[in-house]
Amino acid sequence: MTVPAPATAPPWLSVLVPVYNVRDYLVECVQSVLSQIADGAGEGVEVLLLDDCSTDGSAAVMDDLAARHPGRLRLLRHERNAGLSAARNTMIGAARGDYLWFLDSDDKLLPGAIAGLRDVVRRHGPDAVLCDFAVWRERPRLKHRLRGEGHRRTFAGPHATLRPGGAELLAGLLATGELHAWSKITRRALWTEQVRFPVGRYFEDMATMPLALLQARSYWHAPQPWVAYRQRGGSILATMTLPKALDQSAALRPLAQALQGRPEARHPALRLALAQQCARNLVGAMRVVERAAGTVPDAALDEAAARVRSDFAAASPLDARALAAAYARRGWWLRRLKFLRAHALRHP
After folding, report:
1. Which of 114, 142, 171, 266 has the largest CB neighbor count within 10 A?
2. Nearest Cα to 226, choosing from 100, 106, 102, 114?
3. What is the DSSP string of 170-237?
4. How far apart are CA 342 and CA 199, in angstroms?
5. Which residue, among 39, 50, 63, has the nearest Cα to 15 in the 3D structure?
6. Which residue has the higher pLDDT, 11 or 7?
């Protein structure tokens, strides 16, 4: 079921919030957006919520929010549970805004986020805007502050200036490894029919956001935290399994395929950044393979390790030897050691 869009001028921004069993978090998330619309900064902003067949009462919370804020929310519902990727894809098709901002329903926008985005869009009109984020913990400790969780950068490159898209954008994105969808606000035009989140797969952001940003002709990095990312125990990284690890391993194959024959593929900084992210994926996936020893048959683990190496070879512009040499030239000895050890795991 879908609540139709009002017959008014198209909004400049669509905030897209997928909802699935987030009853305890949804109000705070939605209020963080609506409070910025109410103060005048959100004129021309639409907020879409899609319930993916929640079983915890989240749909009732959506209805209550819509009743309390008439005309502020568009509610959509899936007839059957289809997962995060499908929910986002449905909302891409339903959105009317020139720009799309994916916001997870257990996170929130920080004060001034929409006003900051609006200022960048009005002054410069980039195809993509990248923002930083803060890690949001219920009980932050000193060690979390020392890690810099109050301000996590998502981009390694120029900031607060309009820049052309292409290799520089992708290299800066991959260098940090912060590939989540909610820290990138993109023009809806970048989401062609070929660019959609892979249904039924984990690490969908990593598989998709670089493809969308590859289409961007210009970008802007706002070096301020605009999103509070809630750190909770049920996240994908906190509950890694072998199938999730294999999805992580393969996540950058689509980008490598899309880069074939393009001039960006020859850019040295992009080649190194993509190879490093492929190495991170390999190390992370192999760690799961190693931990599964004794609970999964050896033959299955050998097959999984071979698949992870195959994914690295297919996606990385540098082979294992060339990347190890690049690490050595830069004095990144610990990174080199971790990569080579993981690459050799369960090697025949």
Report:
1. 114
2. 114
3. HHHHHHHT---GGGEEEEGGG--TT--PPTT-SSHHHHHHHHHHHT-SEEEEEEEEEEEEE--TTSTG
4. 29
5. 50
6. 11
For 66, residues 6+ apart whose C-beta sits below 8 A from its C-beta are 3, 72, 73, 75
Residue 87: pLDDT band by 50, 70, 90 thresholds? very high
Q: Mind listing the pLDDT tens digit for each residue in 242-266?
A: 999 999 999 999 999 999 999 999 9
Burial of residue 48 (CB within 10 Å: 0-12, 13-18, 19+) is buried
pLDDT digits (tens, 9 = 90+) for 178-227: 999 999 999 999 999 999 999 999 999 999 999 999 999 999 999 999 99
**Alpha carbons 90 and 97: distance in angstroms, whole number:** 14
Query: Which SS3 state, helix, strand or coil, does residue 266 take?
Result: helix
CB 94 within 8 A of CB 76: yes
> How many secondary structure helices (H) and strands (E) does the chain include?
13, 9
Alpha helix ranges (H) inside 39-166: 58-68, 84-94, 113-124, 142-146
Looking at residue 4, what is its pLDDT? 53
Given a cut of 90, whether residue 140 has pLDDT beyond it is: no
Of 142, 110, 132, nearest to 185 by C-alpha is 132
Looking at the whole model, is its pTM more than 0.90? yes
Three-state DSSP at 99 gives strand
Residue 217: partners with Cβ closer than 8 Å, 6 or more residues away: 127, 164, 165
